[in-house]
Design a protein that fits this description.
Layout: H1 41-56, H2 68-71
Length: about 80
């Protein structure tokens, strides 16, 4: 393009639509229960999976409600 060439702008219609990134399908969410009092091989695998996830993830959400402290064994006197 020479410096003498003009830049032409189309004015006969709307601007082109923006390209949107197509998101990958969401992974299925799962719930796993780990019994820390009666540990066996299956619980150890679940605990290892939890520890790996805690080390890798940048954002973690913990949902706790009424009674969580009692079921965790930390009762106030």
């Amino acid at each position: 393009m020479d410096s003498t060439d003009e830049i032409r702008v189309r004015t006969d219609g709307p601007p082109p639509t923006k390209r949107r990134r197509i998101a990958a399908p969401a992974k299925p969410r799962t719930t796993t229960y780990i019994d820390l009092e009666n540990r066996g091989e299956e619980e150890d695998e679940g605990l290892e999976r939890l520890m790996t996830a805690l080390r890798k993830k940048k954002k973690i959400v913990v949902i706790a409600g009424a009674g969580i402290s009692v079921s965790a064994g930390s009762m106030l006197s």
